[in-house]
Automatic annotation (TrEMBL):
Pfam families: GDI (PF00996). It is a peripheral membrane protein. One of its GO terms (cellular component) is membrane. This is Rab GDP dissociation inhibitor. Interacts with RHOH. Interacts with the GDP-bound inactive forms of RAB3A, RAB3B, RAB3C, RAB5A, RAB5B, RAB5C, RAB8A, RAB8B, RAB10, RAB12, RAB35, and RAB43; binds RAB3D to a lesser extent. Interacts with DZIP1; this interaction negatively regulates the interaction of GDI2 with GDP-bound RAB8A.
Length: 433
């Protein structure tokens, strides 16, 4: 919502952004001080002395990293919201296999030394990566007999004779699929995802992921500032009493007895329970640790992916870990957040493989959230509803949703270049130098 209010303001629309909370970012806020997190999860008492100063903590409720070459970084660069943020590269990505975790190789040397696969497998995998790197959907000479719109990914893996372990790690740690459904779909999307991973990795070398200092709560604030620069208005602590509809179309929002009139409305599912449908649940467990995660080479930040196959599930389990190095925790403390899509009536059991990797855990905060999707695309009502944040640990699916809402509102595709031009019109070329 904050990103869209920024983009719409740049597009010359008059934007009023209301939030019933006293902080920015709604569901994806970073909670500070630590006392507030204890309150939010109804834990008795206050944090122990050992946790350091409460205000040294900024704990994300929904953990996500940014792909260095991904859509959100592009949005940040084009809108220049980067000037309000500082990023750090996440030190490593790990994948779970047979009860142990292994580093996802980030260089050719690491790949050769990795015990994730045997020597012959490595050669075949390298051939596959070279193929992906050279693959250009506009140049059939790079296809080598593969039809990007017809050949399934399963067949592409077969072509390179890759074994199950390598397939698991490629599909889930590189292409970042949550399930194995992609295997029987056309390979173009998967190849593009692996390309995105490789290109993101190439930018900084340690991993393809970035994370903002002071937590993800900085992102909505950055876009709220962008909106303000272009004349948008932001109101926190603003209760929403009613969305006013006439003849099936939104005409305004009632708050504290007044109606703010509007032609279009963007909101998350929590504001319009009658226009969304529940599509699943996510469990997230925020864990405070006093140690880096075992077998990660004492990394101060990392991601761990547990592919569903490895733990007899349909969807992957993710762990995001950050620490005092990112100004989100007290000195010497680490925050690890495990998340997955709920599949049974006992979600806490489902996430156990991840929590086992984190022991000993000093404090746990467990949340189970319903996932909602809009039943109303907004064409008639002009109410545009976002989807709930999923279990993935990067922003690509969120950006797809942003582009989808943009298209439904504006009737045209979201175009980064177009935004760049609009900004030049307002600021003029000189000031940007």
């Amino acid at each position: 919502e904050c990103i869209l209010s920024g983009i719409m303001s740049v597009n010359g629309k008059k934007v009023l952004h209301m939030d019933r909370n006293s902080y920015y970012g709604g569901e994806s806020a970073s909670i500070t001080p630590l006392e507030d997190l204890y309150k939010r999860f109804n834990l008795p008492g206050t944090p122990p002395e050992s946790m350091g100063r409460g205000r040294d903590w900024n704990v994300d409720l929904i953990p996500k990293f940014l792909m260095a070459n991904g859509q959100l970084v592009k949005m940040l660069l084009y809108t220049e919201v980067t000037r309000y943020l500082d990023f750090k590269v996440i030190e490593g990505s790990f994948v779970y296999k047979g009860g142990k975790i292994y580093k996802v190789p980030s260089t050719e040397a690491e790949a050769l030394a990795s015990s994730l696969m045997g020597l012959f497998e490595k050669r075949r995998f390298r051939k596959f990566l070279v193929y992906v790197a050279n693959f250009d959907e506009n140049d059939p000479r790079t296809f080598e007999g593969v039809d990007p719109k017809k050949t399934t990914m399963r067949d592409v893996y077969k072509k390179f004779d890759l074994g199950q372990d390598v397939i698991d790690f490629t599909g889930h740690a590189l292409a970042l699929y949550r399930t194995d459904d992609y295997l029987d779909q056309p390979c173009q999307e998967t190849i593009n995802r692996i390309k995105l991973y490789s290109e993101s990795l190439a930018r900084y070398g340690k991993s393809p992921y970035l994370y903002p200092l002071y937590g993800l709560g900085e992102l909505p604030q950055g876009f709220a500032r962008l909106s303000a620069i272009y004349g948008g208005t932001y109101m926190l602590n603003k209760p929403i009493e009613e969305i006013v509809i006439e003849n099936g179309k939104v005409v305004g929002v009632k708050s504290e007895g007044e109606v703010a009139r509007c032609k279009q409305l963007i909101c998350d599912p929590s504001y319009v329970s009658d226009r969304v449908t529940k599509v699943g649940q996510v469990i997230r467990v925020i864990c405070i640790l006093s140690h880096p995660i075992k077998n990660t080479n004492d990394a101060n930040s990392c991601q761990i992916i547990i592919p569903q196959n490895q733990v007899n599930r349909k969807s992957d389990i993710y762990v995001c870990m950050i620490s005092s190095a990112h100004n989100v925790a007290a000195q010497g403390k680490y925050i690890a957040i495990a998340s997955t899509t709920v599949e049974t009536a006992e979600p806490e059991k489902e996430i156990k493989p991840a929590l086992d990797l984190l022991e000993p855990i000093e404090q746990k905060f467990v949340s189970i959230s319903d996932l909602f999707a809009p039943t109303d695309l907004g064409t008639e009502s002009q109410i545009f509803i976002s989807r709930t944040y999923d279990a993935t640990t990067h922003f690509e699916t969120t950006c797809d949703d942003i582009k989808d809402i943009y298209k439904r509102m504006m009737g045209s595709e979201f175009d980064f270049e177009e935004m760049k031009r609009k900004k030049n019109d307002i600021y003029g070329e000189e000031e940007q130098q």
